[in-house]
Structure formats: C-alpha cells, structure tokens
Amino acid sequence: MTGTRVPIPTLERLATYLRVLIEAREAGIETLSSQEIEQHSGISAAQFRKDLSYFGEFGKPGVGYSVPGLIACIERILHLDREQPVLLVGAGNLGAALVNYPNFKAHRLRIAAVFDNNYVKIGRPFGELVIEDIARVKEVNAAIGARLGIIAVPAYAAQEVADLLVEAGITGILNFAPTLLRVPPHVHVRNVSLLQELAVLSYHAVEEAACSNGLLARGGDDGI
User: In DSSP terms, which residues pair with 133 in a beta bridge?
Assistant: First the structure.
C-alpha cells in the first residue's frame, strides 16, 4: 500500500467490491473482469481500476481478477483479514437487529459485547450475549480489546455514550443516533441516518412522478 491518503469514497467502494467478490466466490466463480465487476456493483470499470491503483497492481490483462486473491487483498487493506470485535451500545429493537445481522460474520466482524443503562435490561440475555451495564464498558473492553463501537441509543444519550466508548479505547464509531458527535481527532465517526436517506428518496420519487405526469400531460396536448 502506498503512503497516499486514501479517499473515503474509495474505501466505501472497496467494501462494495468485497461484497460482489464474496458473492462470486459463493457462486463458485474463480475470476471476474473489471466489466463484470461494473455489472454487479454499478461502479464503472474505470473507477474500479482507479480505486485499486491506490494499493498496487492487480489482475492480468485478458484474464481478469482472481476472486479469492482479490478478496484477500481487499480484506487486508480494510483490516478485515482478522476478526474485529465490536461493542454495541443500545439493547433496543435496533440493537437486536444488529446483533442478528448475518453479514457481520462474513466480514469477520463480531459484536462481542452489548451495553445499556436500563437496569431492567442489564444482566438479561441478548441474542448469544448478556446485556452489560454501560458504566462497565471500559472494564469490559480491557479484556475484549475492541476498537469499533456502534451507538444505537436515543440522540439525547449519544454524546455521553460516545465519551464512554472513547475512554474505553474505541477509535471507530458507527452512529445511528440523529445527532452530531464531538470526538477527538483520532476517533472516526460514520453516521447512519435513515431519515436522511428516506428524505432524499422521497424527493426523487415525487419529482420523478411529477415529471412523468408533466410529460404525459404535454404529450396529450401535442396529440401524441
């Protein structure tokens, strides 16, 4: 890997390529061309080749890319070539869905502990885990050694949870709470906003419907 700082969109696309490659491996496919990667990912073959160029030379002209070889390379780049334990804070409905998410295992991601501050929930089973008191997160993670954390709590509690995770040694946070987190520079946060995504889709859906209706109306006026 070069010393060049890799753009975030490139890392996002690498995760998409990895999904495509794993699906190909499960289908028994040994090689894929960049054009086939484009067909399955929706990302252009040129962009695919450019993204890989940050990390070296891959593939053989006229042959394509070895599926198991490229999986191994991308997993190594993303540090998914080893198990990554993850701490989950929030033992509600979203937390339950995340604990049972099947694709984590395929990418060597394992929710190793779940926390909450509700004393009614603490000590109860949660999937294959037992809900821990969030006040013990530093103590628990001293044994686990996780660097990744997921926040699945209401917005009003998210900052306090983020502070506790950082203090416990977490340097990467996936935040489902609809609020801006303030963290030290060495901590990276990825925000997941279902409302934001649905709002964008709502805009496009209504605009497309209005455009179609307008075209049909104009078509009628023109006698088409």
Answer: 116
> Which tens digit of pLDDT belongs to each residue from 33-62?
999 999 999 999 999 999 999 888 776 766
Pair of tokens at residue 138: 């530093």
Give φ, ψ of 150 to 5 degrees.
-120, 130
Question: In the structure, what pLDDT confidence band is assigned to residue 103 with cuts at 50, 70 and 90?
Answer: confident
Give me the residue label for tokens 């997993």: 75
Closest CA to 189 of 157, 156, 155, 166: 166
CA torsion 8-11-15-17 (nearest 10°) is 120
pTM for this entry: 0.84
Q: Which of 22, 17, 24 is nearest to 50 (CA)?
A: 17
End-to-end CA distance of the chain: 58
CATH code linked to domain 8-77: 1.10.10.10
- When pLDDT is averaged across residues 166-180 and rounded to a whole number, the result is 96
Cα–Cα dist 213/205, whole Å: 12
CA-CA distance, 75 to 108, in Å (whole number)?
A: 9
> What average pLDDT score do residues 157-182 get?
97
- What's the fold here for domain 84-192? Rossmann fold (3.40.50)
Write the pLDDT tens digit of every residue in 177-190: 999 999 999 999 99
Helices 67-77 and 8-26 cross at an angle (nearest 10°) of 140
Of 161, 139, 140, nearest in space to 152 by CA? 161
Alpha helices in 42-190 (DSSP H): 45-53, 67-77, 93-99, 103-106, 137-144, 155-167
